[in-house]
């Protein structure tokens, strides 16, 4: 089958921005800070009820909003930043040809020029902390300050206790439904003060660079809803800028809580401008990728000055978190020599190459304090990278992996001394029986800093389906305490994800994250499932589609078998057909039980006779039988 | 997008029968019994190695085999049955019009006649146990007899201990890789005698009706590889016989260990003839579906004589296991009245309707001993149905569900008194934190009989993706001790699965089952993953595709980004591009570490200088950079 010709960018973007069916954007206003209005998606059901769900899609799905990717999103946070008065605009680092990979004469200089021209409307004057100031959310939190970002997050997490109260009369049931938080401490009512305390303790990160004012704040932490990250990014082999912006918007539509721009090809700086200015979610990067571009791809030519320059470049653009592989120490490298698949982290392998060539300690480790100084001036969060994560089941949980993890724990404490927000990256490829140990070791050595894992993949033989093989591990480790799950797409190990892969990967990871929230008993998470189950029981088909993670697909699957509109009101579905519908029968059972209870004293034999006499039909035929 | 026109049956069947790439069918001969030759798939790797994998696809993928669905498969087991001499052919039950749903004049009498004509070549004379004989595998096992079926199963499970020995020199690594069997007792060497003992103890079932001689025997048990079942079957609304046979062959191609025929429409008897005669895997049914057809869909008109007649009809055709909802007792029905989604099992709701109408105990429960007598005469296995399984997270693990489960445990003991093989069905919809309790209760009350669960689904909000939402639960409960996982397709809750859905459902469930085998440490399971990982590390792309669960999809995903043949030998892939390839770098690390070790006394400084001088390239360019 030939792939259909690709639709133009505008049409793809329109698809990504289309409102969800029966949904409208609502804003929950804050009470502490002006301008705090948290967007959520409200789904209207056919029975008049409404279900409100977490919404990562930003202004794109708001009514009347027209996306213009050349001017970017409104700067929601700008007034908050101004009000704090601890930052200053400044000229910023001068742009250099090398930022976009122009190390040598390039055959596409013209194209690059055009792209930059188009991105002209996206330029912002960078800000940084005033001399002597620290502008991180952690810094404020430790001083007892509740920022607008914290209030925003508190409302966004929707710690609604009404739902639990609905089961209040049935203690046994409530206990079953409450979940098993496995050591997480999730309050039923999520307050701005509680968010502040979590950030102050380092148990939660609010990635929010002061140069990314377009951001709708969110939090990553064990006691918060489990989040999902989507990776996008062009590479040397394929992909362009338009495509990456569209993938970004598309990702947030399908629930990406953060997006990592892993671009590695040319135009890396300009691509990032486009992505950041158009992103309502935090953007993460791996700065070593760009640093390596700057030295022409020769790892041993990397140096601290080049890396430092890249950090500042990206911090000024507004990147919200950096993956920094500072835990990959020289003495750990030989521990990987007998592995089946060696070092599979790109960043990790670049640094390993540098270390063994120079036989020197990793410069990210030796310069870690200086990195902290840079990050605190912009409130960039650390995502301490696991450069030695296992690349196969065979290498899971080995000494190389855990030695690095313990080092990340040490670095976390150093970052916190600088008030820099920090999370810890985790694997990778881990069979189910070794997953818990990953969480245990992280909790033991990393002082409560949020864990952010890639999957993990539970088997290695499913290329083309690694989103599923890894969603299993992701759901489990999410329940165990991981705060954010980095998605894996069906193309993992095979090629670059296209937009369909991005969607498939995200939906698999929203499933994993939601399964974890439900199992942990995050208040409010289960209300969504209960609304769906109720719609199923009552044959409200449209509500079932609209409540689903992907309404379009649910509707189209239903219509393949029973396309008629009448079937959407039918009291049966295509699985069983009209005669066998079990949902219908159990409604009869319920009616019977209720009658039975009411008429207990009339005697069961009499009741049975009455029911028989009434001859209650098994189903309501909506059309003559074929 | 319009659905493309459906290709003709012959072409679809040819697709289902095509050999897998780089694979050949091999047969491992038995030593105890003539005619035992266990088919496996051997995958030839480009480095000369071979990997042998479990093969459910039957003769269809054998070289030179031409499928003729009108004559059926060869009767592999016939000589074994003859040799036992404890069965006899007999006239069998006379066919009745009602068997195919011809209760009234049907508009498609002509079509039915044509189908029967075509199925004429599929008629076999039924066998049953001679008077006073019991012909179940459990009966033989308890008498110490190792049947050909048991020998077949032992070879098929591939308890190879060579693989573990490969790690023998590294105790720490071996311990990590060995898995955590969570109470299962899996020997490293699987012998026919061990299989016999498992069957004798009731811990394993070999579903093998004496009237299904085409069957390639397999076992279901906690100490065996975790199996996957695929449901097929037409319904009143859609689907035809051809389609069902093709779905059967297609299912076995993608790894279905057993297939349940859940047909509910017309032609139900004739469909079953086609399926059984063409099936190399055990076939299960839910006889109450056909019994209900015979009484025109009116549940209260069901009776023991009609049900009994249906059991004999299906046992004579060769059905290998029956789902029997005998544990759904009258007193449990009111326990479901306050559920969110009541009774969702089709069989369960039919019987509940019968019970409440007549206000009498379930006739399957009161006639259970007579059912046992029938099943033992044909070696049909019980799959004791969970008619009260939860239909939503909200109803998971409630008293209705567990009351029925305890009853299934009592019935298991009664079945075993008749030497009837028995397994227990389980849920359904269960959040992660309540899954372990399902396994615990089953182990506690069901005396070691194999558990056979549907999923479970871990969330309710993923219509269109329930294969993923349930693969999470399936992998977990498989690791905990469930013996067989009933698949869920993407169409669950929405419509009838087509062939693509069947494939997607099966692959999700092969992932879950394999993840469970790996976590439990089933000997040999991990060898497959290790071969894949090694191929990844060595950039053997063709081997990666061929070792995957779905080679076609893996290859096509790779080719989307890098279609050139040269890229299949490339020492990089499209994810990172040539400059960043981490696999390549870690090969350098390995080489470096090896050199370092060898030359330890020469001093590290000297070595570092030497490596720098050599200037080892980071990658091998295969074409000029773009």
TrEMBL record, chains A, B:
It comes from Ideonella oryzae. Residues 19-88 form the ThiC-associated domain. It is an enzyme of class 4 (lyase). It comes from the Bacteria. Catalyzes the synthesis of the hydroxymethylpyrimidine phosphate (HMP-P) moiety of thiamine from aminoimidazole ribotide (AIR) in a radical S-adenosyl-L-methionine (SAM)-dependent reaction. Zn(2+) binds at residues 429, 493. It catalyses: 5-amino-1-(5-phospho-beta-D-ribosyl)imidazole + S-adenosyl-L-methionine = 4-amino-2-methyl-5-(phosphooxymethyl)pyrimidine + CO + 5'-deoxyadenosine + formate + L-methionine + 3 H(+). The gene is thiC. Substrate binds at residues 231, 260, 289, 325, 345-347, 386-389, 425, 452. This is Phosphomethylpyrimidine synthase.
